[in-house]
Specification:
There is one protein chain. By secondary structure, the protein is an all-alpha fold. The protein has a domain of 40 residues. Helix 1 crosses helix 2. The two termini are 41 Å apart.
Length: 80
């Protein structure tokens, strides 16, 4: 059990991860975790980010380049 709670560790960690990313889950514990993560530099204010979406043509060209070459399954087969 995690931190004296009645929940298994995975459930507790899932809750912590959700609390860090989902403001609708705010509770005293969640707000505390979120504050600690923010102080540690693991959270950022995404509204403050000014990131432009990549050009659609550039994305399409990158997708075509990524689709070339030896398939991963073939490389794995060759190693075995």
């Amino acid at each position: 059990m995690a931190a004296g709670q009645e929940a298994p560790m995975n459930e507790y960690l899932t809750h912590i991860a959700q609390a860090a990313t989902d403001p609708s889950l705010a509770s005293n514990e969640a707000e505390g975790v979120r504050a600690r993560l923010r102080l540690a530099g693991y959270l950022s204010d995404f509204d403050a980010c000014d990131v432009a979406r990549p050009d659609e043509d550039a994305v399409a060209a990158a997708r075509q380049r990524a689709g070339r070459g030896t398939p991963l399954s073939e490389l794995v087969r060759a190693i075995r």
